[in-house]
Design brief:
The protein has 228 residues and is of the alpha/beta class. The chain folds into 2 domains: 3-114, 3-Layer(aba) Sandwich (Cobalt-precorrin-4 Transmethylase, domain 1); 119-225, Methyltransferase, Cobalt-precorrin-4 Transmethylase, Domain 2 (2-Layer Sandwich), CATH 3.30.950. The protein has 9 helices and 10 strands. The protein is elongated and about 55 Å long. The protein binds S-adenosylmethionine (SAM). S-adenosylmethionine binds next to helix 6, strand 7 and strand 10. It holds the Pfam family TP_methylase. It is found in: Cytoplasm.
Length: 228
């Protein structure tokens, strides 16, 4: 039985990958990824050539079966996603879940983590908020359940971290401003990339900065909310 390595990859800066991750990417028989175009950029940068198998949330069972079959044949595979640690708010977790299901467990597929970047952890690390305990809330729902999600944040008695897209970052901060106007917040934008910016203040203060220049709204965002 082969090994499936779960490899964390950069969240922007291509140098943010561990030596061990590169060694394993060079050794494995195939790389399971999300968007092949994204993974090819990383592999090309390190001059690694590997067969790629794309996997996403709605992949057919036959795709999972194909990957399981490769492992059964003794091939080693690496699972990467578009950015960061596979399984953290991306389709990586689904694959591991399917491969470790009841049937798969009997086959004892070995799954090995190769740790590295994660946007949520990077944002927490610069937040200055207590991180001995924190609550990771993934992405807020777009519509149904969104209000409840933010009420849960407002009521939580610990540091909270969540992901938000460029399309809804203003809406998220407006919701936080209405529910917890005094609470300190950190918004980490484009971590490790050219326009990396860390905004600190209340939701209202950060909204003012983001609204002052439409370039501030571009890119990827992590929001960290200080505990009560
Ligand atoms: N698995 C990834 C990880 O370990 O962080 C997260 C994948 S999730 C589909 C993508 C979200 O992570 C983005 O919408 C954004 O909220 C956050 N994110 C990823 N890269 C980021 C970056 N460089 N700067 C800020 N946020 C980022």
């Amino acid at each position: 039985m082969g090994i499936l390595y779960i490899i964390a990859t950069p969240i922007g800066n291509l140098s943010d990958i561990t030596a061990r991750a590169l060694e394993i990417l060079k050794e494995v028989d195939l790389v399971v990824c999300e968007d092949t175009r994204q993974t090819i950029k990383l592999l090309n940068h390190y001059q690694i050539k590997k067969p790629l198998v794309s996997y996403f949330q709605h992949s057919k069972l036959s795709k999972i079966e194909y990957i399981a079959e490769q492992l059964r044949r003794g091939k080693n595979a690496a699972l990467v996603t578009d950015a960061g640690t596979p399984g953290i708010s991306d389709p990586g977790g689904m694959l591991v879940n399917k491969l470790t299901g009841e049937q798969a467990n009997k086959e004892k597929i070995r799954i090995v983590p190769i740790p590295g970047p994660c946007a949520a952890v990077a944002a927490l690390s610069v937040s200055g908020f207590p991180t001995d305990k924190f609550l990771f809330m993934g992405f807020p729902p777009h519509k149904k359940g969104r209000e409840k999600y933010f009420k849960e944040i407002a009521a939580a008695r610990r540091t909270i971290v969540f992901y938000e897209s460029t399309h809804r970052i203003l809406k998220a901060l407006e919701q936080l401003a209405a529910l917890i106007p005094q609470r300190q917040i950190v918004v980490a934008r484009e971590i490790t990339k050219m326009f990396e910016t860390i905004y600190r203040g209340t939701a209202k203060q950060i909204l003012e900065i983001l609204n002052s220049d439409k370039n501030n709204l571009k890119g990827e965002f992590v929001v960290v909310v200080n505990k009560i």
